[in-house]
Automatic annotation (TrEMBL):
InterPro entries per record: SANT/Myb
Protein name in the entry: Helix-turn-helix domain-containing protein
Length: 123
């Protein structure tokens, strides 16, 4: 375990100020030269609410990781890996990426192949 740095009253006030400004834990941690987890723990002790990091939504025409592994499993006739559940399957059917066949089998459509080919946006 490393050295424990105590929080100063000035750091507490700066944390409160940055949280009021809508900064997330990572942004606050950069300002205070503390880890994001330390900032979250201190905010909890001080009863300060910190904004969750805003993630850009992935475009719906780009397959998520789970959708990609599900499509790969369908194409290679393997069982679905952990995490691929009914909602993932239903979403892919709704998007037209897969179609149900007899029993519990599915077929990948051309749109599904294209969704997997699309590059995942970074950032």
């Amino acid at each position: 375990m490393g050295i424990v740095r105590r929080w100063s009253p000035d750091e507490d006030e700066k944390l409160r100020e940055l949280a009021r400004a809508g900064k997330n834990a990572l942004e606050i941690s950069n300002e205070l030269t503390r880890s994001a987890s330390a900032v979250r723990r201190r905010a909890e002790v001080l009863s300060v609410l910190i904004m969750a990091k805003a993630f850009r939504a992935r475009p719906s025409h780009v397959a998520t990781h789970l959708e990609r592994v599900a499509i790969d499993a369908i194409r290679t006739r393997r069982s679905f890996p952990a995490g691929v559940g009914p909602s993932t399957i239903a979403g892919m059917i709704e998007k037209g990426w897969i179609v149900p066949e007899l029993g519990r089998r599915y077929r990948v459509t051309d749109a599904g192949v294209e969704a997997v080919r699309r590059k995942i946006p970074s950032g």
